[in-house]
Amino acid sequence: MAKQVKKSQRTEVLRYMKTHKGGITNAIAYEKFGVSRMGSVISDLRKQGWLIDTVMVESTTRYGNPVRYGRYFYRGYEDV
């Protein structure tokens, strides 16, 4: 039986951003990969040289309250 390789949250988030043009949000990252500190994951990826853009989105909660959140997009890689 083949050994299953555990992927890091950073790897999963980066892969998701590369394959989903709509980017990733905190909610998606938590639901799919259990990421509870998305800012930390994005910071680590940037330190590794990945180019990630952040777009702030304004919306409302299900109760009608205003909210802002980040949507992160993969842009490429540069040598650090």
Q: Describe it for me?
A:
- With 80 residues, the protein is an alpha+beta fold.
- Helix content is 36%, strand content 31%.
- The protein has three helices and three strands.
- Helix 1 packs across helix 3.
- The chain starts with 8 loop residues before the first helix and ends with a strand.
- The model has no long low-confidence stretch (mean pLDDT 91).
The largest β sheet comes out as: 3 strands, antiparallel
Run of helices and strands: HEHHEE
Proportion of residues in helical segments: 25-40%
What is the subunit arrangement here? single chain
Uncertain parts: none
The main sheet orders its strands as 1-3-2
Based on Cα principal axes, name the global outline. Answer: globular
* Discrete helix count: 3
Distance between the termini: 39 Å
What class, by secondary structure content?
alpha+beta
pLDDT averaged residue by residue: 91
Instruction: Determine the strand fraction and express it as a percent band.
Output: 25-35%
How many distinct beta strands? 3
Query: Rg, please?
Result: 14 Å
